[in-house]
Design goal:
The protein has 273 residues and is an alpha+beta fold. Helix content is 34%, strand content 23%. It comes from Streptosporangium carneum.
Length: 273
C-alpha cells in the first residue's frame, strides 16, 4: 500500500478549512463549508476548527471500531457537537459544517462513504473509473445560483449575492428534499452514500475536496481517468498545481462562474497495486 496526499489553502493568510488524515487502513477527508465575511455562524470556534476536530475524531474512531462507516460518522458528529454545545449556539442555521469522504480497507473489502460534495474516484482497471459523488448540494444550488454566477468574482456585488445564496442554501441544509452535510445532527450520517468492493478489484483510489475535483467537475479540463493519470504521474501536488493554474487564469469567474475564485484544495491517492 502506498498513500500520498497534499492540501493547500486558497489563501496562505487564511486557515485551511480542509482536513485529511491517514491511518494504517483508512483515509478521512473533510471540506469545511466556508462562511463569507458578514455572515454569522453561532459558533466561536469556526469552520477550520470544526473540520479538524470532526476529522481527527473520525480517524480515531475508524481505527478502533469495525462498525459501519455511517454509524461511526454519526457517533463522531454527536461527539464533536458535545464539545461546543455549551459555548456555541448549535441551533443556529449557520453552524459550522463539512463534507466527508472516507475509505477503509477491512478484511478483503474496501468500504467508502461520501457525504456532500467531496468525491471518491476508484480505479478498477476499466476504461472509466467508478466515481462516488453526492450531487444533492449541486442540484439544489443550481436552482438559486443565477445571480451569483452572473456577477464578477471579487466584486462587492458578487460578495453580497453570495451571502444571499448561502442564506437560501441554509434553508435546504440537512432537510428532506434538500442536501445533507456533517454539522450538529447525527441523523445526517444516515443520508451518506456508502458502498464497498473487494479490495483486489481496486488498483487505486482518490479522495478529493471540491477544490481539487473542480479540475473535472467545474472546469472540465480533464476526465476522471485523466485526473487519476495526473495523480499517478505528478502526485496530489501536481493536481493542485493544475487547479491553481486554471483558477489564476480566470480570476473573475468569467469563464467558470463560481462562488470562490480560489478554494482550499486537498487530494489523497491510495495505491493498492
Amino acid at each position: 500500500m502506498r498513500l500520498s496526499l497534499a492540501t493547500e489553502p486558497a489563501h496562505h493568510h487564511r486557515p485551511n478549512e480542509d482536513f485529511v488524515g491517514v491511518a494504517s487502513d483508512a483515509v478521512v477527508l473533510l471540506d469545511g463549508a466556508g462562511i463569507p465575511a458578514g455572515m454569522e455562524s453561532g459558533c466561536s470556534h469556526g469552520v477550520a476548527w470544526y473540520a479538524r476536530t470532526l476529522g481527527s475524531t473520525l480517524l480515531t474512531t475508524v481505527t478502533q471500531s469495525a462498525a459501519p462507516l455511517a454509524e461511526l460518522l454519526a457517533e463522531s458528529i454527536k461527539a464533536v457537537a458535545s464539545l461546543h454545545d455549551f459555548t456555541c449556539d448549535l441551533s443556529h442555521a449557520g453552524s459550522p459544517s463539512a463534507t466527508v469522504a472516507m475509505l477503509r480497507r477491512s478484511g478483503g473489502g474496501l468500504e467508502w462513504l461520501v457525504l456532500a460534495d467531496s468525491v471518491i474516484v476508484l480505479d478498477t482497471g476499466t476504461a472509466e473509473p467508478t466515481v462516488v459523488c453526492d450531487d444533492r448540494l449541486e442540484r439544489i444550488g443550481a436552482r438559486h445560483r443565477a445571480e451569483v454566477d452572473g456577477l464578477r468574482s471579487g466584486s462587492a456585488e458578487h460578495a453580497e449575492a453570495l451571502r444571499r445564496y448561502i442564506g437560501i442554501m441554509r434553508g435546504h441544509r440537512n432537510r428532506d428534499g434538500g442536501f445533507w452535510v456533517a454539522s450538529v445532527d447525527p441523523l445526517a450520517a444516515e443520508h451518506a452514500l456508502t458502498g464497498s468492493l473487494p479490495s483486489d478489484q481496486v488498483r487505486a483510489a482518490a479522495l478529493l475536496s471540491d477544490g481539487a475535483s473542480r479540475l473535472v467537475d467545474l472546469f472540465g479540463l480533464a476526465t476522471w481517468r485523466q485526473l487519476l493519470d495526473l495523480l499517478e504521474e505528478s502526485g496530489p501536488e501536481g493536481l493542485i498545481s493544475r487547479v491553481r493554474e486554471a483558477e489564476h487564469g480566470d480570476p473573475d469567474g468569467s469563464r467558470w462562474p463560481r462562488g470562490k475564485a480560489l478554494d482550499d484544495a486537498t487530494a489523497a491517492l491510495w495505491r493498492f497495486s
